[in-house]
Write a structure and sequence with these properties.
alpha/beta; 7-stranded parallel β-sheet; Rossmann fold
Length: 224
Amino acid sequence: MKVMVLGSTGLTGGLLVKRLLGNPGITTVVAPVRRPLEWSHPNLDAPVIDFDDMNAHAGMFHVDVLVCCLGTTIKKAGSQDAFRKVDYSYALNAARLAKEAGAKACILMSAIGASPNSSVFYSRVKGELEEAVRALEFPYLSIYQPSLLLGQRQEHRTAEGLGMAVMPVANRALVGPLRKYRAIGAETIAVAMANEISRIDSGPRAGVQESVQQYSDIVALAGL
């Protein structure tokens, strides 16, 4: 199986790439990047590309599975428009190119509360992306909707840092319908995604198989 991971230099994407490289059933992991990686692996193809011109790299999208972990923050992006370009336009264009190239499965990292009707800009963009990717009709589509991600990022995010300090305690109070709002480790998500990819049959499918993975689903997929 050949798998593409977008967002491979991010927290979850980076953990996922390293897990996939240890899977003997995966021949190649394609991980497009903006700048050359400082490490390599025999099964890793990490082309440096211009994300504003993905169409020029259409050939690299000939994969069995696309995993999109692309994501930024409005603060890091600099504006809502710049945020939308990364979290919506880049992600959707990649999904479209992969589908056109014959990819049978897509795993999309979204967020809890994602809705095209949300009054919150972040949640609205995520919801619009979910709807747009659904419209591509991948034979297999899995949408991950985690709450706060726990893990060590390369860049410091103040709000997430505060959340990481209190969420392990707060998680215990989030039960029943509120369980989906529990913070979750990026490593857990990476394990869940890797396990799900291992179970995907890349052959032809009848119709569309779609699922949404929230906290309990992700933990179960990770085998925890």
